[in-house]
Amino acid sequence: MSPAASASSDPVLLRVHDGIAWITLNRPDRLNAFAGTMRDDLHDAIDRAAASPDVRVLVITGAGRGFCTGADVEVMSDLLSRGDDATFETLVQAGMRVVQRLRTVEQPVIAAVNGPAAGAGASLALACDFRVASERATIGLTFNRIGLHPDWGATWTLPRLVGAGRAAELVMSGRMVEAREAERMGLFERVVAEDWFEDEVKKLAKELAAKPPLALRLAKRTLAASLDSDLDAMLAAEREQQMRCFRSADAKEGITAFNEKRKPVFRGE
Question: What phi and psi, each to the nearest 5 degrees, are found at residue 17?
Fold first, then answer.
């Protein structure tokens, strides 16, 4: 989302501005396919952004005309020709760590899907809290096109987003899905005209950054827990988190601002 992204040689860029961490995959000449240390660099960028007290929202996107097309096939070919199973497994584990870190990030994480998201790139987008896509974006679990299995958590995230039957169809066909169809089936939460895409992502990120951080953090945690919990457990969790929010300075500010008919200023306290 930054014009300076492709001007840098760093494969992953991190820029923080106005409470928003912009993380950009930066191999535009390869549609941001993963190679070298990119997986670890992405993990480190997420980790640094999440640990910063100044960051309220994370946005992950790609430089140039692609989001991320997964593993660089040239790298895979080299590993295969050398029979280097150990390095390949190390790369798979590095992807696992990225997804595990995304699950523990307390701030909202937006995938800004500006172009093709394929293979591990699609899995990365699915691992974020939600996805905003350009109308020219596409997404696909294309792993079996080169004889590989889905990874980066796709077999966990995908059925929860689209259902078991649709997930099976997408994984087994390996097809790329156009933006509007992806929106209809629940892969993308919002599709935006290409000319307005960057502005819309910035607008959404700024809106989230202005929200009460504690309320968003606790809601994200509770929603994640709901995937493996029953109703009684979630009612108890809601009560506990609601009381934490009620006692917070942000709740006092929000209620006071509402009564005074002004915009609240939340400080995460």
Answer: -150, 130
What is the identity of the amino acid at 199?
D
Strands 116-118 and 130-134, how do they pair?
unpaired
Tokens encoding 40: 């670890």
Amino acid at 260: E
3-state class (DSSP) for residue 189? coil
- Using CA atoms, how far residue 54 sits from 51, 211, 229, 251, in Å, is 9, 14, 32, 20
Residue 87 in 3-state DSSP? helix
Evaluate whether 250 touches 214 at the Cβ level (below 8 Å). yes
CA nearest neighbour of 176 among 103, 121, 130: 121
Q: What is the pLDDT of residues 63-117, one digit of tens each?
A: 999 999 999 999 989 999 999 999 999 999 999 999 999 999 999 999 999 999 9
In terms of pTM, does the model score above 0.90? Answer: yes
